[in-house]
Structure to design on (647 residues):
């Protein structure tokens, strides 16, 4: 990873972390409502993928999708406004945290149905293939989603049509309160790739350089017309599944153990060791992102609610094609 | 004009739209070499190749979801269902995804998507291959729903569906595929959505019928005429949008209405149509609106039983007389 990309990945991870810490804080202050699923601890996966995709490439995301959106170029202010259901949010307050999309920027959307967005990445990849472009599509989904039928249907279709798509399973060890090994037939979800005749790779999802290697390889394969790849990024969510999760299904020790593998701390250490950023520069970056997130909060809080008179807008596309 | 079967009219429109718009393509099961179980994609793969006439695995949710992604990114897929009964296997992709994404994304996504296939009785296919699915798609906002009852309407409505920028559920009927009539040759012949067809003029009672029931309503109307009752028969053609105006105009004249569909009467589209008529046209009505639809049981295999479940010509005839107090 070149220095510029390292810095980009670092800033993206930090933006995701601070965005979500702010969202949690606002939730606890009753300033936003609904479901807010945090990806704190998992930032490296989204950030690295985002760094290697171009604007014209596509992603599909999940209920735990703030990181994916930010990594694909979403602005924290418009994303925060969406979390608050404001008119200025990405979906004008119609979608909320679980449906942030920016189709023009290639984010085909977060999806609150587990597994629901996986085939949409297939479709974007098919579209690229039919239009003869070199675009690729990435689908993010969880370990829980890998047990949905749609995951299997989608991988089979991607394989037979050699679609330029990359399936990225963020195995954060749990689907809600259920441990992955108690409901999954295989230890590594990546081995399921073999059933669909595509490469499957287990990656340390908290290591940006391990992610880099796997993602670059998968993008090249997709662009060379060789078809899809399944990457399983082993990672961990530090926070509860939802805000207020009593977390009866895991021990504090387990959480603390994973916190020692913090992807951001790891990269900060690497950057200091390699003299990419000094401690002062790291602190300055924190200050810069803190400011960005504070501005996002202000933007969201000062944005208007949607006008109820517009509630029926956009059920349908109006007018001719 | 050319005389065409309903199935051929559909096939020809798909071909014409694929010729004029490279973003249109078809996906579905057994549509390539076979040309579909009912011939609606016959020879298309020969002309357009395997990329644009794509045989899919038997994975309805998978190919609907793939179609959604393609539609979001500049393509105009037509998703072929061998039997519309199989939509239930893909319901999440259809009703949670296709129907909702544009709205949930604040209008910043467009899904030009046609889901088409056939439904209904007529081939002794029993409960999982004979049902009518339209009510599911009229209940959840986001789809438009078309139900052509003639070859020419199938052509004109399908062209509108393919050119529409919304998800469209295009509901054909297996028992109508062999019916034929003159179909305009104009490659831009299109019938706008939300415009009902008055199939027969009459002053005494309005019969609103969909799909296969249109023919039965017309037969009943002939019998009624011999008894001095002139029925007006209206085919809404699209259920969403619904042309209430044409129905109200008729009921203003007749004061009476029967709504008939092949789908289950209970919670069917007929209930919605009857309610809308009463909400907007109560002052015109001289009798309560009567609904006819399939009885509340699974469609049985036996032809005798099937006929006992789905409204027949006699049932429509009786209902029309009932609202005329005859
Ligand atoms: C089809 C469906 N089933 C169940 C749920 C409820 N639910 C929301 S998130 C979730 C867990 C998903 O686990 P995973 O795929 O591992 O993603 P993670 O939350 O760990 O990121 C469940 C069960 C849902 N939203 N959709
Ligand atoms: Mg999980």
């Amino acid at each position: 990873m070149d220095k510029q990309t390292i810095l980009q990945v670092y800033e993206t991870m930090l933006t995701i972390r601070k965005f979500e810490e702010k969202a949690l804080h606002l939730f606890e202050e009753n300033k936003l409502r609904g479901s807010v699923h945090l990806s704190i601890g998992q930032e490296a996966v989204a950030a690295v993928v985002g760094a290697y995709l171009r604007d014209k490439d596509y992603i599909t995301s999940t209920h735990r999708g703030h990181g994916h959106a930010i990594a694909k170029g979403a602005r924290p202010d418009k994303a925060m406004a969406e979390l608050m259901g404001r008119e200025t949010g990405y979906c004008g307050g119609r979608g909320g945290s679980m449906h942030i999309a920016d189709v023009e920027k290639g984010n085909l959307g977060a999806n609150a149905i587990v597994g629901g967005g996986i085939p949409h990445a297939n479709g974007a990849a098919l579209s690229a293939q039919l239009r003869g472009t070199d675009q690729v599509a990435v689908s993010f989904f969880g370990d829980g989603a890998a047990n949905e039928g749609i995951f299997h249907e989608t991988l089979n279709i991607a394989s037979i049509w050699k679609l330029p798509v990359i399936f990225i399973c963020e195995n954060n060890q749990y689907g809600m309160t259920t441990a992955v090994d108690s409901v999954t037939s295989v230890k590594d979800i990546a081995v399921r790739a073999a059933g669909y005749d595509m490469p499957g790779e287990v990656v340390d999802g908290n290591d940006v350089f391990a992610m880099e290697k796997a993602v670059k390889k998968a993008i090249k394969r997709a662009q060379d017309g060789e078809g899809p790849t399944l990457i399983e990024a082993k990672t961990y969510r530090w926070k509860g599944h939802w805000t207020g999760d009593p977390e009866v299904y895991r021990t504090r020790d387990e959480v603390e153990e994973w916190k020692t593998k913090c992807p951001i701390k790891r990269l900060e250490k690497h950057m200091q060791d390699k003299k990419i950023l000094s401690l002062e520069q790291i602190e300055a970056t924190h200050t810069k992102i803190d400011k960005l997130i504070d501005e996002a909060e202000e933007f969201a809080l000062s944005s208007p609610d949607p006008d109820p008179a517009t509630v029926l807008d956009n059920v349908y596309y109006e007018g001719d094609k | 004009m050319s005389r065409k079967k309903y199935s051929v009219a559909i096939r020809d429109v798909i071909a014409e739209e694929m010729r004029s718009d490279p973003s249109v393509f078809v996906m579905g099961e057994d549509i390539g070499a076979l040309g579909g179980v009912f011939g609606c994609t016959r020879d298309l793969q020969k002309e357009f190749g395997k990329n644009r006439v794509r045989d899919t695995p038997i994975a309805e949710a998978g190919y609907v979801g793939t179609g959604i992604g393609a539609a979001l990114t500049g393509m105009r897929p037509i998703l072929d269902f061998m039997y519309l009964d199989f939509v239930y296997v893909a319901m999440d992709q259809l009703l949670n995804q296709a129907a909702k994404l544009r709205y949930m994304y604040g209008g910043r996504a467009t899904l030009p998507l046609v889901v088409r296939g056939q439904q209904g009785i007529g081939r002794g296919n029993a409960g999982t291959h004979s049902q009518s699915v339209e009510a599911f798609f009229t209940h959840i906002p986001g789809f438009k729903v078309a139900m052509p009852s003639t070859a020419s309407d199938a052509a004109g409505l399908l062209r509108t569906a393919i050119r529409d920028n919304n998800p469209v559920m295009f509901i054909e009927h297996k028992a109508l595929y062999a019916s034929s009539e003159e179909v305009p040759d104009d490659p831009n012949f299109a019938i706008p959505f939300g415009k009902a067809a008055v199939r027969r003029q009459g002053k005494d009672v309005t019969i609103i019928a969909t799909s296969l029931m249109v023919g039965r309503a017309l037969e009943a109307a002939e019998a009624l005429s011999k008894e001095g009752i002139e029925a007006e028969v209206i085919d809404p053609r699209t259920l969403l949008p619904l042309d209430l105006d044409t129905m109200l105009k008729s009921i203003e004249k007749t004061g009476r209405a029967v709504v008939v569909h092949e789908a289950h009467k209970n919670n069917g589209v007929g209930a919605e149509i009857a309610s809308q008529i009463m909400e907007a046209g109560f002052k015109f009505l001289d009798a309560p609106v009567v609904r006819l639809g399939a009885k509340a049981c699974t469609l049985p295999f036996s032809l005798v039983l099937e006929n006992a479940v789905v409204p027949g010509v006699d049932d429509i005839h009786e209902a029309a007389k009932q609202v005329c107090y005859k």
